[in-house]
Amino acid sequence: MEEIIARGAESIILKTERWNRIFVLKWRQSKPYLFRDIDSQLRKTRTSRECKMLSVARALGVSTPAVYAVDLDDYTILMDYIEGSQFKQIANSLPKNQLKKFCSEFGTSIALLHQGDVVHGDPTTSNVIIDSKSKLWLVDFGLSEMNATVEMKGVDLHLIHRALETTHWDLQECMLEATIKGYSDTIGEEAKDALARMEEIRERGRYH
Length: 208
Ligand SMILES: Nc1ncnc2c1ncn2[C@@H]1O[C@H](COP(=O)(O)OP(=O)(O)OP(=O)(O)O)[C@@H](O)[C@H]1O
Ligand SMILES: [Mg+2]
Hints:
Layout: E1 2-7, E2 11-18, E3 21-28, H1 36-59, E4 67-71, E5 76-80, E6 84-86, H2 87-90, H3 96-115, E7 128-131, E8 136-138, H4 150-167, H5 172-187, H6 191-206
Helix pairs in contact: 3-5, 4-5, 4-6
């Protein structure tokens, strides 16, 4: 049994059965517009990075799918299947207080990464899964990095801001506020630097 559950920008996500259990196989496809060597190098790097960062993130207290196998020649990762919905898909239908709670937890997850000097790299609401027990999971760590600077954390926050205004324009203020509150409450005083950098990056963007 194999079933495609998502086609991301760079990969196919398959639900698959192994050893009498359901898993997800993330398979990075080739991009026809890239030179073959560059394409293969990029898929390899992102696959191994994702594999490593999924467990680095978990060690920092963020829920991520566990990895069972990785194949750098096939560009695949076999990981836990998280049964739930993309935060992006359900945000609109949630009661306001529930929406705020999830945003705050999203902010907390990003804060836990940043406290460990890790950035997610693509922190959008489609990379957040909410399961049936209302637990939040982060996925898609192919662009994640360690040893993150304040600038990199600022960019991560800026990407959240931008994702909220493009995908949730009618809820963006409420969502951003709750996300930043979750972030600041977790990090405390030191959150100021990354948040100030987020504003700075936004201003830079305005005049370019
Ligand atoms: N382990 C998992 N369990 C359940 N669903 C998953 C899992 N991993 C990914 N998905 C689903 O598949 C979607 C695409 O996965 P992912 O974001 O990792 O791929 P991607 O190609 O990098 O996507 P994009 O480039 O569109 O961000 C996710 O948004 C999520 O809905
Ligand atoms: Mg994604």
